[in-house]
Design goal:
Elements lengths: L4 H15 L6 H8 L3 H13 L3 E3 L5 E3 L1 H24 L4 H11 L5 H19 L3 H10 L7 E2 L9 E6 L3 H9 L7 E8 L6 E6 L2 E5 L1 H6 E4 L5
Antiparallel strand pairs: 1-2, 3-8, 4-5, 4-8, 5-6, 6-7
Length: 226
């Protein structure tokens, strides 16, 4: 059977109960997953038929070898993501667990491997006391370091171009016009006139006019507010 996110949740929940030293039951699973016992019973029937677990009517729930292998893969992704969010991104443990629960079903082995390599590289940099890591952590803790699209900037504000997110022809036009990371933009104003608005601003001493497509593709670092 296809391993949907819900199927993976069931397998992982059974595994976690086993790891705690208990034997999974319908009642425990219903409580852990926040569903009714009838819902659990129906799901267990499908998982039993698929060969991922064994469950006799009114009996305990046991993972098969195939089910345990799949459950361990999900559990490993969950624990890795939780650790990444706490140690690298500074999330609270509760927030890390909640985000990991969502993401664990979406990442594949290649993504997991790349994130693991990235995490290991940061851990090594931390052990070596490399200065750039402190700078990175500082940027993550500073709201003004988060770039936003020009179309969301406040009237009269400005910033420094962080990135251009446009693709294909629009990207070529913006690059040819001098829009690139590090360029200053000032006095942004929004007026009506086109669907999504008209955005005017100054760049390199020139007044420029954007529609919503261009204004959504140019992202700026905002100056720190004192």
């Amino acid at each position: 059977m296809s391993l949907t996110a819900r199927v993976e949740d069931y397998l992982e929940s059974v595994l976690e109960i086993e790891m705690s030293g208990d034997i999974a039951t319908v009642t425990q699973l219903a409580k852990n997953l926040g569903v009714t016992k009838a819902t659990v019973t129906a799901a267990l029937k499908r998982l039993d038929d698929s060969g991922l677990l064994e469950h006799e009517r009114y009996g305990d729930v046991m993972l098969t070898a195939a089910g345990r292998e799949k459950a361990l893969a999900v559990y490993r992704r969950h624990e890795f993501l939780s650790d990444f969010f706490v140690r690298i991104l500074g999330f609270t443990r509760e927030r890390a667990q909640n985000v990991a629960c969502v993401m664990e079903h979406e990442i594949d082995e290649s993504t997991e491997r790349r994130l693991a390599a990235f995490t290991d590289a940061l851990a090594l940099a931390e052990r070596n006391g490399e200065a750039w890591l402190d700078e990175l952590k500082g940027r993550m803790d500073s709201p003004h370091e988060l770039p936003v699209p020009l179309c969301l900037m406040e009237d009269g504000s400005g910033g420094v171009i962080a990135r251009i997110t446009a693709q294909y022809e629009l990207r070529k036009r913006l690059n040819a016009a001098g829009f690139a990371p590090g360029v200053d933009i000032s006095d942004i104003r929004k007026t009506e006139g086109l669907p999504g608005g008209v955005f005017t601003f100054n760049m390199n001493g020139m007044g420029i006019r954007f529609g919503i497509a261009e204004a959504s593709a140019v992202w700026l670092y905002q100056p720190e507010r004192v």
